[in-house]
Amino acid sequence: MRSETLSDKGLLAVVAAIAVCLFAGSVQAQAFIVKDGDPQAQIIISETPTRGITLGASDLQAYIEKISGAKLPVATTVNDAIPVKIYVGKSEFTDALNLSDEGLEYGAFKMVSGKDWLALFGQDRNYEPRDRHIRFENGERDYSEWDALTGAKWDNPIDIFPFGGPEYSDAVEVSAYDRRGSLNAVYEFLRTLGVRWYFPGELGEVVPKMTSIALPEVNKTVRPDLKYRHLFIYYGDFARGSRDYVLWQLRMGLEQKDGFGGGHGLIYITGRDKSHPEYFALYGGERATDAAYGNGFTCFSSEGLMDEAVKYCNTVFRLYPDERTLSIAPADGYGTICECDLCKGKATWERGWNGMLSDYVWNFMDRVARDVYKTYPDRRVSNLAYSVYQLPPEKMDQLSPNMVAVLCRWRSEFHKEQTHEDFNKLTEAWLEKLPSKELYIWDYYLHNRADGPWVGVPVYYPHIIADDLSFLKGKSRGEFIEISNNWQPQNFPWDAMAVNHLNVYVTSRLYWDADRDVDAMMGEFYEKFYGPVAEEMKGFIEYADANWMRGNKDVAVIDRMFELIGDARDRAGDTVYGRRIGLVATYMERLKPVREKLAKGRDKNLPAALAQERNKNHIKLDGKLDDKFWEGLTEYDLKDLATGDAPANNTTFRVGWAENALYFGITCEDADMENLYVSATEREDANVFNGDHIELLMETPVHSYYQIAVSPTGAVFDMDREDGDYKSTWSSGIEASADRGEGYWSLEMRVPVAGENAAAVDALNGIAGPKPEEGAPWYFNLCRQRTRGDQSQYSAFSPTGRISFHVLDKFGPLTVK
What we know:
Elements: H1 8-29, E1 32-35, E2 38-39, E3 41-44, H2 51-68, E4 74-75, E5 84-88, H3 92-96, E6 109-113, E7 117-122, E8 124-125, E9 135-137, E10 140-142, H4 144-150, E11 168-169, E12 174-175, E13 179-180, H5 181-192, E14 196-197, E15 205-206, E16 213-214, E17 219-222, E18 228-233, H6 243-251, H7 267-270, E19 282-283, E20 286-287, H8 291-294, H9 303-319, E21 325-327, H10 358-375, E22 380-385, E23 403-408, H11 417-433, E24 439-445, H12 462-472, E25 478-483, H13 497-512, H14 518-530, H15 534-547, H16 555-572, H17 576-587, H18 591-600, E26 609-613, E27 636-637, E28 639-640, E29 651-657, E30 661-669, E31 693-700, E32 703-710, E33 716-720, E34 735-741, E35 744-755, H19 758-761, E36 767-768, E37 778-788, E38 791-796, E39 812-816
Parallel strand pairs: 3-4, 3-5, 5-7, 18-25, 21-22, 22-23, 23-24, 24-25, 26-29, 26-39, 35-36
Antiparallel strand pairs: 1-2, 1-16, 6-7, 6-17, 8-13, 9-10, 11-12, 14-15, 19-20, 27-29, 28-38, 29-30, 30-35, 31-32, 31-37, 32-33, 34-35, 37-38, 37-39
Helix pairs in contact: 2-5, 9-10, 12-13, 14-15, 15-16, 16-17
């Protein structure tokens, strides 16, 4: 009788069958989007997707194929034969899964998975332009409908672009104002797979290769730390940017809607209508109606202008109910108080450059905001904290509940510890003034602009960015950052984003997580973007980060930068990494002429002045230049600033030295003394720059540089201009006296020298420098502005070749003998 036991062969078959079942079970437990190069998923979107969802599905499909070679189908219906579903955006399918986008404002999103599905979604909405109230014919604007609606002659802050709004991309068919949370979710999912977009276009992207992509187990909500995230790239913005540039911004997760209302909004009120001259600032007896590119500088004591601003805000809010905030900030370039009787005494000169008009300007803004609040308590009025009104007002404890402040500054300047500390304190001070707690930042990543002093210098500051955004988390609602980029018709041989792309990338990632480990982020950047030359590029970038502020001044720094980037480029060779490094190297070519100029030294043909030693008891400072002190001193002439020719109204000066002070005696001939324009009569009145005045610019061996302006009354305004600052809280200690005669006015000035270490002892007082002697001269320029009406004439001891006194390499040497 045959036994019922299994043969060895049968036993092996059973074991094999069990193993197959076990393996099949493990495969089902670990679902795949792509398995061994074969697609295992489909992308599902709504039958009526938004623009952002359509782009998200398309990019998800494209990058999955780049990673694995598998092309996932995109559909609006489910194919049950395909194992895994990836839902992009809300649809009937996500509704069936009870997935909600509630609370996902400002681009926030969710990534949620199940056994055989993944959902990537947020709030999505197409931005649809409002009714057009301004018509366009051959590029010209027709305001008739808009003027009829408003009963005024304003420009329109919402509707000034002819097609699709100011921020619509024809290249990508997406608006910057679209809500696109689901698109953000798609890009975050691709980042989890290792995809990175460090730079616009294919050269800037990093895409890993893998044959299989597992379905993740995830249930995550991601919210940005800063709600408003606008990186405004010149000529690379949504309206004008190439497809590569617009996609790069989208992949960085930016958000432009529901922000602070824009910049210099007052120009929309004053730009077209000049029928109320009393709205405009009075300078030298004339109203500044055409200043600021025709928009005008305003008088902030004008009750009529105040009423007009209230009417403007209420009208725009009525016509555009979706608009949350309107700017009424002054025109760009505004910096001196109106000279009318109503404005007298309203400046606070003692607060220095950044606060001298704060109470004057912010009082106007606050009164407008309070009136608007009566009608629209849910809307906001914004003003820039900028230039001479950057500091909070002192005469108001609290601003209106609907007031928004936009603090302007350069983040890169935080490499100076004191500047960083000062701006942190300023941020806190503004928050104390704002019941709304709505504070925004306006920053500038403009070191790469073609006409600036830093072009060619590799300016990196990732740690400054990280420190600042960590501090701003919970304090700032968001940021607007100006970022320079080449305008295509200029056809520059370098890419303006060659260096700046890293600052932009780091900023955008920290907007979403301000506490992220920046060192880990940088380590990943070096590894992914530079591969086999990661260490070389790390060395280069870290050196540039620590030394860029001397990168246009120090030959040794420039040489070391070129050495490091050259070594990295040689090692990388003709590879994708070499091409990326080549962008930086080509950009730095602009540094070579700077290096040559520095190595050559100053022009030996510049005019020089000799200050002879004198007895201080031989002078009485009364402006008359009739003392024994001036006898025998060389008399120097000023020349036309741009041409070097003799000016119509001559200016001469003499210079002496006595007991640690320079003395200047200046005579300004003037054929029209009757109309001498005196715009300042008190010390620290910045209006001195509006009228006739003398400027003394001085660079000492230890400090670059100082600016001292003196009016025909002897009123002094002085500033420390080190590294481009406008530090008017600094005091030179200068004494000045003035006199007038027939056909001339004259000045006598005593300029005390505080010593070589003065800046370390007291940075706010005294000119730091040793006695100017042969071998260690000072470099200076003495300049004159003569103004009549809207016309000014400029002359200088050392002509600069252009209408600017501030050309340091034209400063001539000054020594004492």
